[in-house]
Amino acid sequence: MRMTAYLLSAVATAAFVTPAFAQDVPTTQPEAQTATTTSGTAAGSVDAGQAPVAQQGVAPQADTGGNASDIVITATRRSERLSNVPIAVSAVGSAALENTGANDIRQATQLVPSLLISSTGSEANASARVRGIGTVGDNPGLESSVAVFIDGVYRSRTGSGLNDLGEVDRIEVLRGPQGTLSGRNATAGSINILTKLPSYNFGGYAEATYGNYNNVRIAGGLTGPIIKDKLAFRLDGVFGKRDGFYYDVINNTDYNDRNRYFVRGQLLFEPSSDVTVRLIGDYTHRDEKCCGAVYINTQEKIDPTPGTPGDFAINPAGNRIVQVMQSMGAVFPSAGDPYNRRIANSPGKAYSNVTTDYGGSGQIDVNLGGASLTSITAYREYKSGGAADIDYGNLDIGYRPDDGNSFRQFHTFSQEVRLNGSLFDDKLDWLIGGYYSKEDLVVADNLKFGTQYGAFAACRIVATANPLAALRNPNNPGCLSNTPQAALGGATGRQALGAGFGTLAPTILAGLDRLSTLNNLGDQRSTYYQDSENYAFFTHNIFKLTDKLSITGGLRYTHEAKDFHADFNNNNTVCPAQQAALSPLLASANVPAQLKTLVGGIITLTCTGNSTSALNNLDLNNGFKEGEFTGTGVISYKPRTDTLLYASYSRGYKAGGYNLDRSDLTANVFSAPTNASAANLRFDPETVNAFEVGLKFTSKDFTFNVAGFRQEFKNFQLNTFNGTNFIVENISTCGTSLNGADTDASATTGACTGDVKYGVISQGFELEAGLFPAPNYTVNLGYTYTNTRFRNNLVGSESGQALDPALFLLSGSNLSNAPKHTVTASTAWTPDIGSSGMTALFYVDGRMTSDYNTGSDLFPEKGQDGFFLMNARVGIRGPAQKWALEVWAQNLLDTNYQQVAFNAPFQGAGSQAQTQAFGSTANQIFTSYLGEPRTYGLTLRTRF
Question: What is the pLDDT of residue 475?
């Protein structure tokens, strides 16, 4: 019944505009379909009224009437109609992207149900997921499971796709493992963005937008010949500025604003009909305050029936962590109403950060007669600043100062060469290729404990030991009151708390005093380096056994080498002193377990994340080399010219790497890391075996695609923030039962002594349909059912190490950000206005998503209920679309939803789930990055 409801929602969306029904607004054939040369270079749809570029050798295309969805794509590095490609791929053309208001890849999710894109601590941390599988973007040491290509060039991380893109011909979303068709391999899918080419006919466009939040966007482009029929140019530029969606009540400023510009220049050189050269250079600059987060849960959970698991209650006395923070001046402006979008950063710490992304590429296509050669050479640099108030509150607990010593930077060179052709009277369509890339990644960090951290941390320890407020005074050493209190029987806080420590009182209280001095200390500039070198050879071959039956075989070998080293400059001298004084107590049999827990907490809060001056003397180095064979096999059958059936198997691979975070150097912080600890930062490669069956039907007025899939991931790379540090685990499953040890609270149980097997399954089906009853009526519907889940008996590495206890909820559960049901629908109607040549535009699209959890650890506080997003656009267009005036809205219904919820750094510990399972008190405060509110505006555009 529930599935029926999701399917019906698509129909409901389509009904908003009658009788319109969705996808690209039908335009002239050059605009709706991508012309290609014999070498397979995408020529791109062109500006209105312009002829396609480089049409030599293009085979005549069959008339599909009103069907604008069966466009020509190059997903297989060959020019093929979408309906003839035996893989699951969604292609969104320029008209659909324009109608939905997509300026980057994030808005494409509104039209592609299997795609989900979110961003967290900054837009550099974007994460793309296909079929529920993706890589959390907060840690740059992890490559994305979904590769992003722009004009054939691999982008190092998904965040680069959140830049403005200028005019785009189309976006292709390939689902499932990739690797035998192009340079970079991926385990979950790839996003191919193809921008528009230069034209030999002079022309251009300009558009201006103004919307709420003082949104101003100006874009334009110019193209034309330099040498007739030999050399053409194109120049695109975008400027965008907008107020933020959050308001900082402390610094009196908005947050999550937009302030960016983008330029791209191109040259297209065709010295002969057999040679095409395309040169591209682009530059993006962003200076924006991102990203604010609101409080979504500040409650303390307790066990009302100790010894009886499964229940919990909200502490009627309140959350002791909140009370500690309030006693120190903290405010919670969004508590109880997160969608008021009011935040509170520490005074003077509402930082903006500069991101620059630039580079160039050259693509050469040569028709050799019996074969075609393609070479793509590229070099790119990307740098994103990381200054931030990392605790997301006005209490100064932790921060990265704006002094230039916090950033991530990529330098990437890549070279791809492909040779393809046909043999045996076109019975064999073959492709071979090679790829080389060199990526140098630098992550600089200046993370410091804030000016109020010491008092807060000491008060947190005291409140954990005893929540009685009379014990505490954040202005005193150790956060202990030093005046007699009636509530304490006339004793001071120091006397009352110390009475429970016996003979250890002087030592433990001295540790509390030291903890309270930990202010403004930490990394001055600690730098992580990961140098990666990758080469691969691949082949992809289609054997046409008959006119109707084909088989495809693809194979790839990838070699990856990575070298890691790190240099630290950390001035936290309190940590070594604390370890020297208190760690012996943890090893003593004479210290009660309860006091060991307290002592361990003092050391942990002093040295959390391995913030210690002891790092400065280390020489951390590590490296590895690995190689992997991957491939694909497809059998496809066309019983009729309008129907394609296929079945496929593919194997994918994503390289291992290093967790670029000092917190993972040791299992705990009771002793200092050593040089050998560098190996602990390494994680294993991720592999997947994928199976798929599908059907594609295409006619003049109707298209229908269905795909069923199952994907089995081994060593799934999971990145989780636990409120203190980032944990990177390789999720697999043990071949023998762990008897529940992967769901307990212990870090010492749950190791696997048997075979280690795949630990994540993604399976389900996808439906896509398009109706084109008339030239100006279109509809597109999509539905994805994805059951993406962890298996049982989970382990955290290839070697079978025990799963981190913070991940105890994973076993048998769905992955985060992986809704089971997603429905999309888009509708467009472009009726003529009399005989004037003008047309109107009525457009609406919608995306409905079922419930899912937004946190990698699946804590229930991070859950997101199902929601519905709608975009709409209404306009009038001049003859041949020479001009247009449009009114638009995104998130028209002002739907409230969150992108990713997370543990507020250092602000408590424990989830409701831990209270229910283990009976522990949970006082962790939770914060969240929200989705964007309703935006609306007016756009004026012209073409010439």
Answer: 96
| 910 vs 312: CA distance, rounded Å | 13
Within 119-252, strands assigned E span 127-130, 133-134, 146-150, 153-155, 168-175, 189-195, 203-211, 215-227, 231-242, 246-248
Taking the C-alpha atoms of residue 624 and residue 664, their distance in angstroms, rounded to an integer, is 18
Distance from C-alpha of 421 to C-alpha of 741, rounded to nearest angstrom: 55
Cα gap 105→102, rounded to integer Å: 7
Buried b (16+ CB within 10 A) or exposed e, 596-622: eebbbbbbbbbbbbbbbbbbeebebeb
Per the CB < 8 A criterion, the answer to whether 144 and 125 are in contact is no
Beta-strand pair 643-654/686-698: antiparallel
For residue 109, what pLDDT is reported? 87
Residue 73 has a pLDDT of 66
Q: Check if the beta carbon of residue 433 is closer than 8 Å to that of residue 556.
A: no
Of 603, 726, 605, which Cα lies nearest the Cα of 671?
Answer: 603
Could you tell me whether strands 839-849 and 867-877 are parallel, antiparallel, or unpaired per DSSP bridges? Answer: antiparallel
Strand partners, 264: 236, 282
Which residue(s) pair with 415 in the sheet? Answer: 377, 436
Question: Residue 199 in contact with residue 223, Cβ under 8 Å?
Answer: yes
Of the CA atoms within 13 Å of residue 29, those in its CB half-sphere come to 10
- CB-based burial label for 15 (10 Å; 0-12, 13-18, 19+): middle
| 3-class secondary structure per residue, 464-532 | HHCCCHHHECCCCHHHECCCCCHHHCCCCHHHHHHHHHHHHHHHHHHHHHHHCCCCCCEECCEEEEEEE
Helix (H), strand (E) at residue 267: strand 258-272
Residue 595, H or E segment: helix 593-607
Residue that has been written with the tokens 């220049």 in this structure: 265
DSSP conformational letter for 837: S
Give residue 124's pLDDT.
64
- Asked if 408 and 125 count as a contact pair (C-beta separation under 8 A), the reply is no
Euclidean distance between CA atoms 200 and 193, whole angstroms: 22
pLDDT value, residue 101: 83
The structure tokens listed for 456 are 């807060």
- Residues in a beta bridge with 928: 294, 901
pTM: 0.90
pLDDT number for residue 71: 63
As given in the structure block, the two tokens for residue 152 are 């054939």
The pLDDT score that the predictor gives to residue 122 is 65
Please give the pLDDT value at position 793. Answer: 97
State the Cα–Cα distance between residues 885 and 871, nearest whole angstrom.
17
Question: Are 794 and 810 in contact, with CB atoms under 8 Å apart?
Answer: yes
Residue 241's nearest CA partner among 214, 218, 255, 259 is: 259
At how many degrees (to 10) do helices 453-465 and 593-607 cross?
A: 160
Rounded distance, CA 909 to CA 745, Å? 13
Q: Within the chain, which residues score under 70 in pLDDT?
A: 1-79, 121-125, 137, 160-161
The length of the chain, given as a count of residues:
944
Q: Cα–Cα distance between 235 and 166 in angstroms, integer?
A: 10
In the three-class reduction of DSSP (H, G, I as helix; E, B as strand; rest coil), residue 642 is classed as coil
Closest CA to 292 of 328, 319, 261, 253: 253
Give the model's pLDDT for residue 184: 84
Strand, helix or coil for residue 605: helix
pLDDT attached to residue 200: 96
> What is the chain's Cα-based Rg?
29
Written as six digits, the tokens of 686 are 């991720």
Hey, is 942 helix, strand or coil?
Answer: strand
Residue 737 tokens read as: 């039962």
Cα–Cα distance, 463 to 456 (Å, whole number)? 10
User: What is the per-residue pLDDT for 609?
Assistant: 94
Whether residue 284 contacts residue 163, with contact meaning beta carbons closer than 8 Å, is answered with yes
